[in-house]
Amino acid sequence: AMVRVDGLDDPVGPGSTIGTAAVANAIKVVVAEKLAAMGKPPIVLTSAYFIGAEASKKRFDDSYDDYRARIRRVYGG
After folding, report:
1. How far apart are CA 71 and CA 55, in angstroms?
2. Fewer Cβ close by (within 10 Å): the C or N end of the chain?
3. Cα(75)–Cα(11) distance, rounded to whole angstroms?
4. CA–CA separation, 40 vs 47, rounded Å?
5. Furthest CA-CA distance within the chain
6. How far apart are the C-alpha atoms of 60 and 46, rounded to whole Å?
7. Cα angle 21-22-26, degrees, rounded to a multiple of 5
8. Cα(77)–Cα(54) distance, integer angstroms
9. What is the chain's pLDDT, residue by residue, as a tens digit (77 residues)?
10. How many CB atoms lie within 10 A of CB 32?
């Protein structure tokens, strides 16, 4: 934890989150690069701020439709 707050015995705000988020995002970038190089680019969930609400919702829905199709094979259905 990184921050001491008056009235609390223990600090709050874990610093490990910063490193974990950086590593997770770096892995996502490398995977996206490899998939794109293989001609199988991933569906990128992009904020409505950048592509508009309708396009953002479509990507989100497409991504979860793809996910459901893939796990259906694993769980049988």
Report:
1. 24
2. C
3. 43
4. 21
5. 56
6. 8
7. 115
8. 30
9. 899 999 999 999 988 998 999 999 999 999 999 999 999 999 999 999 999 999 999 999 999 999 999 898 888 76
10. 13
Domain chopping of the chain, boundaries = 1-40, 43-77
For 17-59, the three-class secondary structure string (H helix, E strand, C coil) is: HHHHHHHHHHHHHHHHHHHHHCCCCCCCCCCHHHHCHHHHHHH
- Give the chain's radius of gyration (CA, Å): 19
Predicted confidence at residue 77, as pLDDT, reads 65
Q: Considering only CA atoms, which of 56, 30, 26 is closest in space to residue 44?
A: 56
Which amino acid does the sequence have at 17? T
Contact 11, 3 (CB under 8 A): yes
pTM: 0.67
